[in-house]
Amino acid sequence: MFAGPNNIIGVDSWAVDYALLRDGSMLDNPFHYRDARTARGVDAVHARAPHADLYARNGLQFLPFNTLYQLAAERQAFLEFADRLLLIPDLFAYWFTGTERAEATNASTTGLFGVRDGAWDRDLLSTLGLPAKRRTPKAAFDYTDGAAEGELSLARARHAFEDIEFHPGTRRPAEHADTSVEILGGPSALPFGIAPTGFTRLMQTGGEIAGASAAAAAGIPFTLSTLGTSSIESVKASNPAGRNWFQLYVMREREISYELVRRAAAAGFDTLMFTVDTPIAGARLRDKRNGFSIPPQLTLGTIVNAIPRPWWWVDFLTTPKLELASLTDTGGTVGDLLNAAMDPTISFDDLAVIRDLWPGKIVVKGVQNVEDSVRLVDAGVDGIVLSNHGGRQLDRAAIPFHLLPQVVREVGPDATVMVDTGIMNGADIVASIALGAKFTLIGRAYLYGLMAGGREGVDRAIHILRSEIERTMTLLGVSSLDELQPSHVTQLTRLVPRADTK
Ligand SMILES: Cc1cc2nc3c(=O)[nH]c(=O)nc-3n(C[C@H](O)[C@H](O)[C@H](O)COP(=O)(O)O)c2cc1C
């Protein structure tokens, strides 16, 4: 670097390496391109985009340290926490000038820059799962991506899935992996369904309709939340022949809940999912920091954040108003409705009343210990979902995937035990099925796809999970899901309870 008489500063550095920042501060020192971690990234990237495809897009010879490989080996939590990536020369430029920019020739070394149009390759970013954050305003992204308090439950749940060891048999790999299952009296082409999520149109205006129609195309169940932003009837219209499930929060004013139950039954939804982990809302600190409001307001902060994402706002402001579509007839502000939604006094008696109202299957979601699992199965529910709400309620609650083997042992092999929280890869789903889950639910894995690309993004997310499931099954040497056994998986643990506290 040299500061000459004209006050020009040149920055000479190696390309491809980068720093991750949040609110202008580096999260960690950059890794050097020679760091051995990038080898992992090469496999991960080529599994989704072979080098020939990459070459056609970015015109780069294969160099294992290009930024896209480094990013694929990056720590997930850092990628999620960062709000900016700067290549090293751009980082120096930022420090000197305060301006965050990506210089084009340097950007071309990332592998993520189009050789033909000289612009960021959004399709490739989407294929590699990197773009949702870029397309969605910070408050809406954080509402989706975030969890409660220190977000430890979510991080631990994801670690739990990373920390498994698979044990393939020595048999010849199965030629075709059949991913279909029977669940709650009906078929599903894949061993997962879409979890209920509130305010889904906030993330991308396609919202529940994008989710339900993608579920219809994939032949998997879609679950509509009580706090959904598309109506029961419109979800049915988007998934007319497929399976729709309805998630119920029991309101303080019980009649509101009962009316929703009747509407869902009339629309032909086949399963009611009764959520029990939400006596009050968890402390979502990112939402507090962002001043997150529903519906989102155009404030100075949101306008600044909207500058790189104008289409989200154009879309948001030109499509139907965001509201709780199943509850529009009940009056009150959205805040009033949210308060009404959470009733700390719900009990097994509510379950009995709903049983009388609902002709289909009843599932309890948010079960977090062995005793409740046994009690609910004994009480005759059709299924339970081991879940801590994606870490959004009680932080540091037990990891559902860790509870799974013990719960299955206690309730017996015939009970329908499902699991969610932290699923980001088809291999997570295969491991859950091997350890006795009959089915799984995906929340954020679907929402990231939705934020990145609307309906097509959800299709893509389902496609990626399906190919991961098929590949994992084939490599394990099983051709159907019921061949999966606990012996195919060992759960390793990072945090072990101290002997004297048990
Ligand atoms: C943005 C968001 C909104 C959610 N809203 C609801 C809801 O309205 N009702 C509910 O029972 N669960 C809700 N959940 C929890 C999901 O149904 C599911 O349990 C959780 O997302 C699973 O964890 P995962 O995101 O790691 O897959 C929500 C989750 C997210 C991420």
TrEMBL record:
An individual GO BP term: carbohydrate metabolic process
CC cofactor: FMN
Enzyme class name: oxidoreductase
Highest taxon above the source species: Bacteria
Name of a matching Pfam family: FMN_dh
InterPro entries, per database record: Aldolase_TIM, Alpha-hydoxy_acid_DH_FMN, ATPase_NBD, FMN-dep_DH, FMN_HAD, FMN_hydac_DH_AS
Family membership: Belongs to the FMN-dependent alpha-hydroxy acid dehydrogenase family.
Protein's UniProt name: L-lactate dehydrogenase (Cytochrome)
Lineage, opening ranks: Bacteria, Bacillati, Actinomycetota, Actinomycetes, Micrococcales
